[in-house]
UniProtKB/TrEMBL annotation:
Residues 1-14 have a biased composition (Polar residues). One of its GO terms (biological process) is phloem development. It holds the Pfam family SEO_N. It comes from Glycine soja (Wild soybean). Residues 1-23 are annotated as: Disordered. Residues 28-266 form the Sieve element occlusion N-terminal domain. Residues 526-654 form the Sieve element occlusion C-terminal domain. This is Protein SIEVE ELEMENT OCCLUSION B.
Length: 662
């Protein structure tokens, strides 16, 4: 029988025709992929995927314990037995050369052109399994089974036919390959977005090659099994494994990407709507699932590890700082300053909120941590508030994009203890108003704008040049004036020396503005307008009271014989000060400039030094010798003579009702 088949196979292909056939081991992958893809017309033919996969898997795994535990009862099967048997016979009658195995593999692919890619591989291996499975069934016939032993001997099992080790190794690989092709087919059928599961598309590039080498390997194996060929099966196994590893790589990436989609679905659609507190929100955003295989993120504060992790934020308002690692130096300085402000007098209650209940947490957003760890470490050393250390992609990244509207630029989202977002992005108002924006809701900006809008409107109505001031929230404006031209000139020179100053690579942008410099008539217009803001009646509300306090302070400063100064950050007035202590603070800039980094912002460092200077000026004695109308006699009864007046000490009434209340 084998001899007849051998001769038939020999007559099927002449030596001249053989020389024209390509050797698949000498072809490039791209050449094989092209030839294979030409055979694929459509994939609408039906087949019993699950049943056939189970049956074939049990057959090719017959030498191992990897058999399906499920019992399968089949009354009909697509494709039917004649189809599978024809494929099996076609493989058997193939000559024992790589060229002929290549030709048969392409012919089988042509015959299966209407099936899906996974069906092509599965059906071909099913055809091989008819012979392979029959061999192992007969091999296991018990000695007492006379009928079985007769068939076994007719098939010459273990007489002249054996399954060599290289065939068992190749069939084992075929079983693994079928499992992954089947997995690919299931995932492909789920219509995942290729942007979310892009590795599925990459896997598709390898599928035609994997299917081809699967079929070619079955053709070579069945010829060796029947005994009409002596293919070098190790070569087929090597080539199949090479392509299979590529497919494995892409599908393992698919597994991660699909797992991420499923994890996101659970976090976004199931867990997020049921959030009870801010700790649960943080768990959703940064804590990976137990089956993720990655470590739990660490929480640090000022470089110190927080042992209880995200539990430290329980019943707290959390300012979530989302950003990349690039160009965030200004944001870090600003938030360090806010952190200092929150820690100063933490029990202070403003608008029903205590400063001590607010915490800042940096959650860095990084696509690839491989080259970013050193940069993160450098930033970590500068940060005084809380931060997350986690060198993996955040499990809640998509939620941060969807719910917090993070798009790559730094944002600060304020979340209440119940895990609800109070403000999607408070960074702009923090830059503009600093700690004065507490508790950093959008509604708080309205009060702040109302508090200072009148001042800027008045200044701009007085002088169009003032419109340029305060447009940049990170710049500082010194607005000054006075009756003493010498002091005004000295202050102008002193300010000019610190403009555009750089302190340890931190730019300090200063905008000086002298009221009335371009037009002296602007000076009385400003003060008349300011006087018109003064009210004798009670305040309408808290903001109106604050405005009236500022108006009284400015009118008081007007009385300083030398001059006055207003320091603003952006359009937020920070300091209203007297001429001499403000001038002296500017003059002593070199003495306190390093405090700018320590205090995180220029205005905080400036005010700290100004307050010290102001106290010194307040306590200076003013000696003045002159004649005095009233006379005082010596209180000593033994003397009784009129006392001589040599000097009089004057002290300003700071703190009294007539003071400027600075």
């Amino acid at each position: 029988m084998a001899w007849v088949l051998s001769n038939t196979a020999t007559s099927a292909t002449t030596p001249e025709h053989k020389d024209q056939l390509p050797n698949p081991f000498e072809l490039q992958d791209s050449q094989i992929r092209h030839k294979v893809y030409l055979t694929h017309v459509n994939d609408d033919k039906e087949f019993d995927r699950d049943i056939l996969f189970t049956l074939v898997s049990n057959t090719v795994n017959s030498t191992s314990a990897q058999l399906s535990a499920a019992t399968t009862s089949v009354t009909s099967l697509k494709p039917d037995f004649p189809t599978l048997k024809r494929l099996s016979c076609q493989m058997i009658t193939t000559r024992g050369t790589p060229e002929c195995a290549h030709q048969t593999a392409l012919r089988i692919l042509q015959q299966l052109s209407g099936f899906s890619w996974d069906a092509k591989a599965l059906i071909a291996v099913a055809g091989f399994s008819l012979e392979y499975g029959e061999f192992w069934r007969l091999d296991r016939v018990q000695a007492a089974d006379q009928f079985g032993n007769s068939l076994k001997q007719l098939n010459q099992v273990q007489i002249s036919r054996r399954v060599p080790a290289d065939m068992i190794d190749l069939v084992t690989v075929l079983g693994e390959v079928l499992s992954y092709i089947n997995l690919w087919a299931k995932w492909s059928a789920m219509d995942y977005d290729t942007e979310a599961v892009h590795s599925l598309q990459a896997a598709m590039q390898e599928i035609p090659l994997v299917v081809y080498w699967t079929i070619a390997s079955t053709v070579a194996s069945i010829g060796n099994l029947v005994g009409i060929s002596e293919h070098k099966l190790s070569a087929y196994k090597e080539r199949l494994e090479f392509i299979f590893k590529k497919l494995q790589f892409h599908l393992e990436n698919c597994r991660v990407e699909i797992g991420r989609i499923q994890d996101y679905h659970i976090r976004f659609n199931i867990r997020y709507p049921k959030i009870k507190d801010v700790v649960e929100l943080l768990d959703i955003l940064i804590i990976p699932g137990s089956d993720n295989g990655t470590s739990i993120p660490k929480i640090f504060e000022g470089g110190v590890l927080i042992k209880n992790g995200i539990e430290v934020f329980k019943q707290k308002y959390v300012m979530l700082f989302f950003s990349s690692l690039d160009s965030i130096g200004d944001e870090i300085l600003l938030l360090n300053s806010i952190n200092n402000g929150l820690q100063e007098n933490p029990g202070e209650e403003i608008k029903g909120f205590k400063k001590g209940d607010f915490k800042i947490l940096w959650i860095p957003i990084v696509d690839d941590w491989k080259s970013k760890r050193e940069q993160f470490t450098n930033l970590k050393e500068k940060i005084k508030f809380y931060l997350v250390e986690y060198f993996e992609e955040l499990p809640g990244y998509d939620i941060i994009m969807d719910k917090f509207k993070y798009e790559g630029l730094p944002i600060v989202s304020v979340v209440n203890p119940q895990g609800q977002i109070m403000n999607e992005n408070a960074l702009q108002i923090i830059f503009e108003w600093g700690i004065d924006a507490f508790p950093f809701r959008r509604s708080d900006v309205y009060d702040l704008n109302k508090k200072w809008k009148w001042f800027w409107n008045l200044l701009e109505q007085t002088d169009d040049n003032a419109k340029r001031l305060g447009k940049d929230n990170t710049s500082y404006a010194f607005i000054y004036g006075g009756n003493d031209s010498s002091w005004v000139q000295n202050f102008k020179i002193a300010i000019g020396k610190i403009e555009k100053h750089v302190i340890n690579n931190v730019d300090i942008n200063i905008e000086p503005y002298q009221l009335g410099e371009s037009n002296p008539d602007n000076v009385p217009s400003f003060w008349i307008g300011l006087d018109g803001k003064k009210k004798n009646k009670g305040c309408k509300d808290k903001v109106d009271c604050e405005i009236q306090e500022v108006v009284r302070t400015l009118l008081c400063l007007k009385q300083d014989p030398s001059g006055w100064v207003v320091l603003s950050r952006g359009r937020n007035l920070k300091i209203l000060g007297h001429a001499e202590p403000m001038y002296q603070t500017v003059l002593d800039f070199e003495k306190w400039k390093n405090k700018v980094l320590e205090k995180e912002t220029f205005d905080v460092a400036f005010k700290e030094y100004y307050d010290v200077v102001k106290e010194k000026y307040a306590s200076l004695p003013y000696d003045h010798t002159s004649s005095v109308l009233a006379t005082i006699t010596c209180p000593n009864p033994l003397c009784g003579r009129v006392m001589e007046v040599t000097s009089i000490n004057y002290r300003c009434c700071h703190g009294s009702a007539n003071s400027c209340n600075l």
